[in-house]
Amino acid sequence: MLRPPDGLVADGITAIDMDSFPPPITVSHYLVVGAVLFVLGAVCMATKRNALGVLMGIELVLNGANLNFVAFGSRFLRQDTLGLDGELMALFVIVLAAAEAAVALAIALNFYNNHTTIDVDHADDLKG
Amino acid sequence: MLLAAIDWHALLFLLFALVACGFGAAVLLTSNVVRMAFYLTLCLGATSGLFFLAGAQFVGAMQLMIYVGGTLVLLIFGVMLTAQARFISMKTGAGEWILGAIVGSSLLLLLVRAGFSVESWRLPRLDRDKITLAEGQTSTAIGLALTSVRVDKLSAPNEKLKPGMSGYLLPFVIVSMHLLVVLIGAGYMARTKRLGVNRATDRPVAQAPPRDRDRSFFVSAGLASGMIVNLLLAVGCCWLVAKPLAITGNAAPTNQFLLQLAKAIDAAPSWLLPTLGLLFLANVLLLVVVWYWQKWGVVGLVIVPLVMAFLIASTSLGQAAAVTIALIALAPVVLLILLLCSGRPTAWSQME
Amino acid sequence: MNLHDLVSQLIIDSTGSASLITPDSSLRAFLPELVICATVLAMLFVRLFRVGRYVDMFWIALAGSIAALYFAAPWDHLGAVLTADQAAHPAAVTRMEIFTGMLVYDTFSVYVRSALFLFAILFVIFTRLSGIPDHEDSPDIYTLVLGATLGMCLMVTANHLLMVFMAVEMASVPSYVLAGILKGRRQASEAALKYSVYGAGAAGVMLYGISLVAGILNTAHIPTIALTLAEKFSGGLSAVPSGELMVLALGALLISVGLAFKLSAVPFHFWCPDVFEGATAEVNAFLSVASKAAALALLVRVALGMGVIAPTGFAPGERWAKTHQNAPATTPTSTDKTTDLFYIAQEPVTAAGAAAAADSTAEPAKLPAMQSLAPVRSFTAKLIAFFAIITCTFGNLAAYGQTNIKRLLAYSTIAHAGYMMMPVAAVVAMAGIDNAGAARGIAGLAIYIAVYLFMNLGAFAVVAFLRNAMRSEEIADYAGLVRRCPLTVVCFSLILFGLIGLPPLSGFIGKFAIFASLVDGWRAVEAAGQPGFYLLLLLIVGGINTAISLFYYLRVVKVMTIDDEPADRPPLVYSDVSLAGAYLWLITLPTAGLIVAWDWLSEMADAAARNLIG
Fold first, then answer.
1. Contact C613, C438 (CB under 8 A)
2. pTM, full prediction
3. What pLDDT digit, counting tens, does each position of B69-92 carry?
4. Best mutation site among B64, B72, B90 for testing chain A: the one with the most A CBs within 10 Å?
5. C461 contacts C125 by C-beta, under 8 angstroms
6. ipTM value of the model?
7. What 8-state DSSP symbol labels residue B248?
8. CA distance, residue A26 to nearest chain B CA (Å)
9. Architecture of A31-120 per CATH?
10. Chain B CA closest to residue A12
């Protein structure tokens, strides 16, 4: 259960918390989901050997950030918010991610055509 | 009774959050790329559910339509194009797993801690009972914001933030340019290149030019005399810059032509003479270039007089002077071209 | 305020006055970028017709770049700022937020964008001379180059966190394709893959950082971020809850990852040598000059934007209204209820609106806000200084032992990114303490960018032309070149000496300006009673690195001049007096001769620094 640490919750709020079964959702809960997606994506990018797997990791990272934006902009979760900016930025990120995925995929296919592999571990002609 | 006590919002959140995180983890843990794509679809679909729950219906719908319906289909397409048995399942080494797990879990710990460390993020909205569905209907406001009209500015609770509420017309328009460029780029990358020999690196190294190119005496003499004349003119220009001719008084030249020249120079703006001097020097260089068998030197020789004429025409000296100078300067160039094209074999045909 | 007013404001914001001289509207200030967009469209449109297939896209790209430079008009705008009565001068640029705050237009943006367009012109001519791309590829490649340039212009002018991310994407994604421009080659496609994967990852990390910063401050507009931060820190550093501090620092670090990647700063430089080796020299020139200049400008925008209260400027349309007193006022007066289309019009505007009006008339005191931002600036300056030190040192040390000239120049590029980050650290540290000194630091950076443009373009041009001549990019194959093409070797040597920063050459001017700003910064910060040792450290590290860099640059010169020609070298077909050679002279001329016109360049740079700090 994702729950704010005890003692950090203001008194007025704990009273509300009592009468609902799962405690009310806050921005922090969204941030936790966003952080999980972000970290999963980052680890995915670092460990996957398949170029397409790396691309999927990137999608996860961007989604984690997007979830943050939506949560910060949501009026359901707190009084003073990022407002519409949050939703709008999330929208643009979706569009930019689509563009990035298209190019990255084209590059991965080009790599496949030249190397007949999409294993990024085989990308070692250029030694860093 | 029991049902009434359940906060459906929180329960649905838990459901979607677990699905999103669970399938996100599945993407990471599986080594089969086809399964990865499928899990990613479910993960992103659950995320769109979270968007709906946060009141961002429009973003949620776009997430389903563009992300799940577009971008992921693209990725799956890529999976199909490269689907060979040996690529379907590529396992990550144990060392990378361990390293990834350590770094990942510490990063996750940091980010989760950060998520709970700000008070306004930690606390739910106080007047949750008063939240109406209308507050979540942001589609109209989003549409207007994309045309740069922020209607939510009017009801923004924090006055100080209002000036910072920008309209999104520019990103909305400029992103179309980005998409255009990116599609051209993706098309370029995915297209197979005809194995042409057009590209500089594909061409065989050019043949070395023949060593025994001969130049007729007249061409050599013309080039040499041109260099000398232009050099003298350049020096003359510098001389005139350093020591301007006097127009009146005892020092004034008695020769009528020189007097006219001095008056013309005096009338011209101060930048003209140094510029002309530089152009004469450029002529010398271009003649050297022609000496070394380069065709572009000839083109340059034609352009320089035109530039001179244009510069003079733009000053107070007038267009008549400009045309005269251009004709005088072009005449030797024409003569040079005629010389280059005469003889057998012509000098022109031996040039690069 | 109702919908009608909002729309009227938008129209004034976009079109302003129709004057072509006074940049008084978003569209006028954005004209160079619009020209670039039109060029891209023209290249697509021409291809629709059969005749158009024979048109060489080089000419369209060249014309578009020249037109963009013409409309950016640095000679008008930068010169006008320096005149005595600049307020009255129609062409003088003041700080102006355009497109309702998405971008900012000021002399700095005029300067850097002009440098980008100038580079685009020189670059297009360079590609023509070096033969990459060929006729078949050229429309696509020039589209990508101009598309990336458009993104870089947005990086230079970004004033909103969304624009920061979007501009980085717009500049990067076409660059990924450019890295793989020779798509039939294994190395090129590998370079493109590495660049795109790492680049996308860094962009994702930066986006997460942006989300944290925007979420805690509830705004994404950079000047408003500065105001909100100032409010948060107004009670001193200790009054801010430690949790919020941690989130802010975390967000700043994540954003710095994205910026460091664009700057190829250590430890996010690993892509740079590989991509440079795999991509062609032409693309390397583009990445190492244009991309780097834009990334530096973005670093200045973000670091100064968040750490300094933005100076006041005009809103679009205001200057026109001021100079034409009889013209209709900027604030539309129509409140005709019949034109109101949406429910918001019925909302009362009384209390809140009046409070806002009162707020804006009583100008909030500026100095306390600037002072309360001091911890933000100190953090940013130290972060940038840290990156600068390790980037500079690592780049120079790793350049030893490189046998491939493109890898060597890649590490040289990394090292120069380090040098160029140094004045930014000094400027951020000085802001609020010695604003004039901070402006001089920005001017130093601007000089370095201009000087660096010609040096690196020239270096990669030599590499490209020699590759065409002998199909090799190994330093060993350059041995004894001085006996084959002496003029080119002289040009290359001058450029390499310039990159070291030896006195009579232009590189020295840049280095001098940068180190001077570090000394300025150290003195000012110490005088204000704050720790400024890190600026002194930067100065020392910069000096030591200059000495280190001497050796590997000189090694190349030595190989070219003293060593004997290798017996197994492919035959060399290259003439010093060819058109390519003439291009090299042209590019080397500023490197060798800029010392004569130093005043002129430093005036331009001074003008560029005018509107950044109050």
1. yes
2. 0.89
3. 888 888 888 888 887 766 666 677
4. B90
5. no
6. 0.89
7. S
8. 5
9. Orthogonal Bundle (1.10)
10. B126
